[in-house]
Specification:
With 348 residues, the chain is an alpha/beta fold. Helices cover 41% and strands 15% of the residues. It contains twelve helices and twelve strands. The C terminus is likely disordered.
């Protein structure tokens, strides 16, 4: 058993997973510092007993000052390119070089402060199971979008440092749902679905996990000293069309009227990004969400998740709490009522 958590720094505490981690740490009695580029706390941080620090400039230049005095650093804001032709150049670097520079700065700062470091990663860095054709397709997706390379590089950097003595770990959750999402509304799956902005649903099987299970898994992994490893975290396996039907039934709105292929959706989004990129513009529809859906596959909780006691809560509870959160922050438009008047009862 590792030592307890007295004071934690959460980078990205206004984000979806980061905010859930902040709440989990507060419930454990830790004092929590949250960094943000914003001048004021976002709605999901309001009324939480935190130290809020506005960060001007890039993390690599400030890592030492931010980490000092904290015995745990949670990086829930590891950078990744949303688009293939990402024009953001933090510190004048491309996304890959910036991610490497930022990771090394955090690792060095954690070493100096003798802090533990927990990084929120992605299921896409886990060994890909399945048939040969599926693994080949996943390998192709890896090469089409820089997101995958950046995520692998961050994992490699942190786990490599852990082999050299850093108390560091990486959690690798599947698709995350639940309350406290702070992303832009146009990047949130449930608001897009419930506002009628998804023209079709897919039969692709994905795995979804409640954000609260992710936060609990991260904190328990730290408290149990599971350093030097990548921790996969997963929840429920279901088809995307089933997920959209469940959510729409709860919200009392019509589900997407058509069925489509994630392969076709990803292909169209990639062509669209390429076209906009040729014009020197960002595509209004990033291809990454479609690529991640295409990359997804069924998962079952592994030994590490089971040993930490992370049991997925009922999916309907997750969806209900997420819908209530999005409604509370104005992300849901007036309901597109079902033809039958009353919402159908979701399946178990």
């Amino acid at each position: 058993m590792s030592q307890g958590i007295v004071r934690a720094l959460v980078l990205g505490g206004s984000g979806h997973i980061g905010n859930a981690v902040v709440r989990e740490l507060l419930a454990c009695g830790a004092k929590v510092t949250v960094t943000s580029r914003r001048a004021e706390p976002t709605p999901n941080l309001q009324e939480l007993d935190i130290d809020f620090v506005r960060v001007r400039g890039e993390i690599p230049h400030k890592a030492g000052d931010l980490v000092r005095g904290h015995d745990l650093v949670v990086d829930a804001a590891a950078p990744y390119p949303l688009r293939i032709f990402d024009r953001d150049r933090p510190c004048g670097m491309n996304p890959m070089d910036y991610a490497a520079c930022r990771s090394e700065a955090l690792i060095a700062a954690a070493r100096r402060a003798r802090s533990r470091l927990a990084v929120v990663g992605s299921f896409t860095t886990l060994p890909r199971p399945g048939r040969l054709a599926e693994r080949i397709e996943a390998g192709l997706l890896d090469r089409l979008h820089p997101y995958f390379e950046v995520k692998r590089a961050i994992d490699t950097s942190v786990l490599g440092a852990a082999r050299r003595g850093l108390q560091g770990l990486v959690i690798s959750p599947t698709a995350v749902l639940g309350p406290w999402d702070g992303k832009d509304r146009d990047l949130c799956f449930l608001p897009l679905t419930l506002n009628g902005r998804l023209p079709f649903a897919s039969t692709r099987v994905i795995n979804v996990i409640d954000v609260r299970e992710v936060a609990t898994g991260l904190v328990r992994a730290v408290l149990n000293g599971r350093f030097g490893a990548r921790l996969p975290l997963c929840g429920h396996n279901l088809r995307l069309c089933e997920l959209t039907r469940e959510a729409c039934a709860l919200a009392g709105v019509r589900p997407p009227p058509l069925y489509g292929s994630t392969r076709c959706a990803a292909g169209l989004a990639l062509w669209g990004e390429a076209g906009w990129g040729a014009l020197g513009l960002n595509s209004p529809v990033p291809s990454l969400p479609s690529l991640l859906a295409r990359y997804s596959y069924p998962m079952t909780p592994g030994p590490a998740q089971q040993q930490l006691g992370i049991v997925p809560r009922p999916l309907l509870e997750t969806l209900r709490d997420a819908i209530n959160w999005y409604a509370s922050v104005g992300y849901l438009e007036p309901a597109r009522t079902l033809d039958s008047g009353a919402a159908p009862t979701p399946s178990a």
